[in-house]
């Protein structure tokens, strides 16, 4: 007896696709090559007993905002979002810091001469956040439900981050803050469309927040798997799919894989223009990441850094811009932009009493073998003297390690493809339905499809809807679960 649908890969998008198909009444089986479910959405004891680390994603601005996640009965499944007193702090030299507060007005007030510029840029996105999400987290060829709000967002979002940054040149802190948020894209700040993700992240900060999941990221995966199983479907680990013949028969097959993996598995079944587009799909920058077990909280010079789960480290706008441009040229920046997450300040379940976990990473070129541990630690020490004395253990992982753990991270590419130029919108190929492949019944749902990277499950949701329509099943709309 064959399955109705097979999903290859149990990352957040694979599980979202499986749930979307199962909600429509299909019997779905998820095949995961690893012995661990979740892809980039898991928790592990990477350092010492009692310390809970998230090897990949840790903070979820798009997770709590995601229409797909909000449709799930998350609270009844045991998922609890934990917020800091502020979503984000940007640490500057000399013990200074700029804080993104939950309140947009409080943030603008802190920015002094740049207050009006910040308010004018971010307020429209925050005010229309729920209306915009349907379009921002959807495929490109859709008529927006709220065209005026979307058009206003697009006027700024289509610009480069560098162009938008000119609004803040009157204030060094605001200028640096914008650069740090824009650099989450891991792309040069002068690329067109690079302002859009930054606007989305700041819109989230002032509406739904940048929370962590209590108990670790793995709690989200447990919730997704539990819900999928409640719908009568299943997940099998230790089931690699290397060739098309490894697949059980099914009416629909959805791949939560990189384009390179899809090419390898489907082989000569893919040909023509679609194959050429996948072969030319560009990989993005890589991560170098360090997870720490600490004897105490980070001794930040700026007390504001204790307010937020996420802290950015960069001297100025110019330093962030130079760091990302150097990586795009294939070089390793001497002073890279660094993102730090400190979940145990707000979620004590992450570490033994009095102890803490920390997560820090920087961007480097795809596949780069350089060990950045010392660089990251030196940068943290600059803004938090005494940090090194607190380190009980560390786990460092570069691009090769990340790809070994999760083949979707091709060369350490956490975005599943460069987020610049037209590849930001049209991924992995220019098609009316970006989730459908030319192979009958086969789809792709990874972050290589719209709306792209981030823990939101929307790539999987839209791919699931696409697969259902090709089976002649009209999927219903997403609605917020009553448990939210």
Per DSSP, what share of the residues sits in E-state strands of 2 or more residues? Answer: 5-15%
The CATH architecture of the domain at 3-43 and 212-281 and 414-470 can be given as 3-Layer(bba) Sandwich
Class by SSE composition: alpha/beta
* Amount of helix: 25-40%
How would you characterize the largest beta sheet? 7 strands, mixed
Specify the number of helices.
Answer: 18
**Shape estimate:** globular
Mean pLDDT: 93
Please, what is the oligomeric state? single chain
Radius of gyration: 21 Å
Low-confidence parts, pLDDT < 50 over ≥5 residues? none
What is the end-to-end distance?
38 Å
CATH topology of the domain at 3-43 and 212-281 and 414-470: FAD/NAD(P)-binding domain
Q: In total, how many beta strands?
A: 14
Summarize the structure.
This protein has 484 residues and is α/β, with parallel strands linked by helices.
Q: What's the SSE blueprint?
A:
Elements: E1 3-8, H1 12-23, E2 28-31, H2 61-65, H3 67-70, E3 81-82, E4 88-92, E5 96-100, H4 104-110, H5 115-127, H6 129-136, H7 147-157, H8 161-165, H9 172-182, H10 195-205, E6 212-213, H11 218-230, E7 234-236, E8 250-255, H12 259-266, H13 272-279, E9 286-294, E10 310-313, H14 317-328, E11 338-341, E12 356-364, H15 373-383, H16 387-390, E13 391-397, H17 399-405, E14 442-444, H18 458-470
Parallel strand pairs: 1-2, 1-8, 2-7, 4-10, 8-14
Antiparallel strand pairs: 3-6, 4-5, 9-12, 9-13, 10-11, 11-12
Helix pairs in contact: 1-11, 1-18, 4-5, 5-10, 7-10, 9-14
């Amino acid at each position: 007896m064959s399955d109705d649908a097979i999903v290859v890969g149990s990352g957040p998008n694979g599980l979202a696709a499986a749930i979307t198909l199962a909600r429509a009444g299909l019997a779905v089986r998820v095949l995961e090559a690893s012995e661990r479910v979740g892809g980039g959405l898991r928790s592990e004891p990477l350092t010492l007993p009692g310390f809970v680390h998230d090897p990949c994603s840790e903070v979820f601005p798009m997770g709590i905002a995601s229409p797909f996640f909000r449709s799930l009965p998350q609270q009844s499944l045991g998922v609890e979002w934990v917020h800091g007193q502020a979503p984000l702090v940007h640490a500057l030299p000399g013990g200074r810091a700029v804080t993104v507060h939950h309140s947009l007005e409080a943030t603008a007030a802190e920015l002094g001469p740049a207050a009006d510029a910040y308010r004018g840029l971010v307020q429209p996105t925050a005010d229309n956040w729920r209306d915009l999400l349907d379009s921002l987290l959807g495929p490109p060829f859709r008529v927006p439900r709220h065209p005026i709000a979307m058009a206003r967002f697009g006027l700024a979002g289509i610009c480069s981050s560098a162009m938008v940054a000119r609004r803040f040149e009157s204030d060094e802190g605001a200028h640096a803050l914008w650069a740090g948020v824009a650099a989450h894209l891991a792309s040069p700040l002068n690329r067109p469309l690079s302002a859009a993700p930054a606007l989305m992240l700041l819109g989230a900060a002032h509406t739904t927040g940048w929370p962590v999941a209590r108990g670790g990221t793995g709690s989200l995966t447990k919730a997704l798997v539990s819900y999928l199983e409640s719908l009568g479907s299943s997940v099998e680990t230790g089931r690699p799919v290397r060739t098309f013949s490894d697949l059980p028969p099914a009416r629909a097959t959805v791949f939560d894989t990189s384009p390179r993996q899809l090419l390898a598995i489907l082989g000569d079944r893919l040909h023509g223009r679609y194959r050429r587009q996948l072969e030319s799909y560009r990989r993005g920058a890589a991560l170098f990441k360090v997870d720490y077990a600490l004897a105490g909280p980070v001794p930040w010079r700026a007390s504001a850094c204790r307010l937020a789960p996420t802290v950015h480290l960069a001297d100025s706008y110019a330093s962030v811009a130079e760091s990302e441009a150097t990586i795009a040229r294939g070089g390793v920046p001497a002073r890279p932009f660094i993102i730090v997450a400190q979940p145990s300040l707000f979620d004590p379940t992450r570490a033994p009493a009095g102890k803490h976990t920390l997560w820090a990473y920087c961007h480097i070129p795809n596949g780069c073998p350089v060990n950045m541990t010392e660089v990251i630690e030196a940068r943290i020490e600059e803004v938090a003297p005494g940090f090194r004395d607190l380190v009980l253990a560390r786990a460092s992982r570069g691009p090769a390690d990340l790809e070994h753990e999760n083949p979707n991270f091709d060369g350490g590419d956490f975005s599943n493809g460069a987020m610049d130029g037209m590849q930001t919108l049209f991924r992995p190929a220019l098609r009316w339905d970006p989730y459908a492949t030319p192979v009958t019944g086969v789809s792709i749902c990874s972050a290589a499809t719209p709306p792209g990277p981030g823990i939101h499950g929307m790539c999987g949701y839209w791919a699931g809807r696409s697969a259902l329509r090709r089976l002649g099943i009209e999927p219903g709309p997403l609605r917020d679960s009553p448990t939210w």
